[in-house]
Structures are given as C-alpha cells and as structure tokens.
Design brief:
about 400 residues, alpha/beta, Rossmann fold, eight-stranded mixed β-sheet, five-stranded parallel β-sheet, 19 strands, globular, binds cytidine-5'-monophosphate
Length: about 400
Amino acid sequence: MTLQGRRVLVAISGGIAAYKCVELVRRLKDRQAQVRVLMTKAAQSFVGPLTFQAVSGEPVHTELLDPAAELGMGHIELARWAEFLLVAPTTANQMAHFALGVADDLLSTVWLAHAGQKIIAPAMNQQMWQAPAVQRNAALLQSDHVQIWGPGHGEQACGDVGPGRMLEPAELLNRLETLCFGKDLDGVRVVVTAGPTRERLDPVRYLSNFSSGKMGYALAQAFAQRGADVHLVSGPVQLSTPMGVHRIDVESALEMHTAVMSLALTADIFIATAAVADFRVDKMAQQKLKKNGAPGLMLNLVTNPDILADVAALEGTKRPFVVGFAAETEHLHQYGREKLERKRLDMIACNDVSVAGLGFGSDRNALLLLWNDGSCYLPEADKDQLAHQLVDHIIEKRQLGVQH
Ligand code: C5P
C-alpha cells in the first residue's frame, strides 16, 4: 500500500476528461491515500463539485477567496498540505498560467504556493497540443521540474485523432505509485512471461486459451516500479506495456521458449505466469483446412517445450531464482508442491481457478505460495496489489538463498 496515507491534491481543470477523474479519486481512496479535490470554474461545467465531494469524502475547493475555507484550510494551507499536486485534466490555458506564474484563481495560486511534486496530465485537441505556444510552455514546465504525464494518442471527443487524450486513471495511479516507491531493486534483472500462446493450425485458425495476461503484467509493473530492469515476454493480449518495461511480443510456445532462453542466462529472477499451450500441431497446414463434407477432423498434436522447467534446469551461477505459477481446480497444496519439486522451482504461486471471479481473466486473485520448506497464503486482492506482495516474498526468499 504505497499510497496509504500519502496526501494527494487532485486539481481538475476544464476539459471533458474531468469525468474520468471521478474514477481516479475513487481508486486513490481505495489505495487509502488522503485525497483533496480542487476544481476550477471551467471544470465545474463538466462535473459538479458534489460528485467529487461524494467520492473523496471531503469538501471540494473551488474559490480563492472563500471565507469559510480561509478559516480552516485556505489556499496556502492547501498547497502546504499536499505532497503531490496532480492537475488532471490540464488545459492549454492552465499550462500557460503555470508556465508564466500567473496567479488569478485558486488553482494557479495553489500551484505557485506548492513546494512538493507538481504533475500535469494534459488533455486537449491534438492541434492545440502541437501548437508551438503549448509546446513552448510544456518545455518551460519541464525545466521547472514539473512532471508531464501524457497526453496519450488516440480518438478525441472532438472527433480528431492524435496526441491530446488524458492518460487513463489506472495509468495516472500507477505513475503516482511509482513516485512513492523506493528504488530498492535497481540493477536486478527480471524476466516475466505472460498471456496465452497461440498455436497455428492453418493460416486462419489457432489453438489458445483464455489467459488475459493481467497477473504477469502486474508483476512486471511491480518490479519496474521498484527500479528493476524488466523484460516481459508476452503472448497476444489486450494490455498496454507498463512504464519502463521492455516488452517482447511472441505468438507461439516455441517463440516464447526462444525469447526466454536468450534472456534467462543473464536474469536474476525468472517468473513464468504465461499460460503456455501444452500442445501444437506437428505441422501447420499451409492452406486453410476445408470441411469438404468430412464428419470430423483429426489433429496430430505434439508437446511443446516446458519453458519454466528448461530455465529451472540451467546450471550454476547462470540459473536465476525461478518462480512458477499453477492454476488448479482442486488439491491446491498437493498439486502445487508436486509441481514445485518436479520442475525444480524455487517458488510456486498457486491459484484456485474454480473460484468464480478470481484468477483467469479477472482483475483479482488470491495465491498460495509454496517453497521448499514453507508456505504462505496471500488473500484475495487486486492483481496489482498482490503483485507487490509477491515481489516482497520473492526478494526475501532469494536473499535467504531458498533452494529448490
Ligand atoms: O505444468 P503446468 O502447465 O501446470 O505449469 C504451469 C507453470 O509452468 C506456469 O508457470 C507456466 O507459465 C509454466 N509453463 C511453461 N511452459 C510450458 C507450460 C507451462 O513455462 N510449456
């Protein structure tokens, strides 16, 4: 819980992305951060202050000269209170105010009075973002040590496509968490596999599974947030690459095997979360397989290499600390321990995929961790939070020199 107790002032300026900040504030509260919300006049045309009051549980700050607020927390106190000032969305007009030091409303005044980390999440039409004046202001703000997060690229509310979308609340949250972490894993090399693999049958069909890749991506992100050098070997998934992570896209188990084996020799830690297909067809058809009135189709399948077992079999100093995953529907403890021993792993994280809403495809999970002479249960939580707990256990066991 890195954001627990941290004081975040979310300042909302006038853009349609203001509605997304309701979700941002809610997620910050979930992480037990202390959150205050400030809104400019223009922001209140998009979302009412009452909405933010409800999600933050605090009165929303809107006026520079508010007699009631001045008694308790005026603009200077508000600026002093905040560790992080996150302006989201940030309009071109606000950027100009910040760059020039104009102080003519509550937000621009708090901005000048705030001595902590200032962050802006720009959101505007793509042409506006690319305008020389806006780019000049962005450069000025950067030289003032303001963090500029985004904008993202994509379709805009006005119908244009290009750079100017505010980053999604989940991404803003991740970046805030990253700021809060100490970089205790600087220099540690980590390789993670994630997602499903696809085994082609013919040019248009494949064998695969329902893995979403979320657990592996959450782990890659958690390691990167703590300063590790992370390579993520990923099957086809619908997820964006976590900040600072090197992603290598692969399709089949054989491709994943090749990519992993070339990285594993220099890795300190290897974690296999991928749901690798156990089998592939011995020979992919060069042309689309036709029905031709046949009553069925026989596929000749051959076994794929076990990537995890092959990394665990590396000898001597080249062998990383090896962590496997096991998805089981029963006898979690027994099957997990068998797999730990058979594949010669240092640790295994087992999840019960028979529980609805956990594991495969879900945002939440619960894990039973097993190592040679111990075990530990990580109860149900968001995969992001669980990933950080798992990182802590892996680091501790690796330092203790736990052996398979
Ligand atoms: O044997 P099983 O497939 O249940 O083992 C699951 C673990 O092994 C996971 O960590 C998975 O990523 C890894 N695995 C692998 N290569 C395979 C099959 C599984 O790395 N071919």
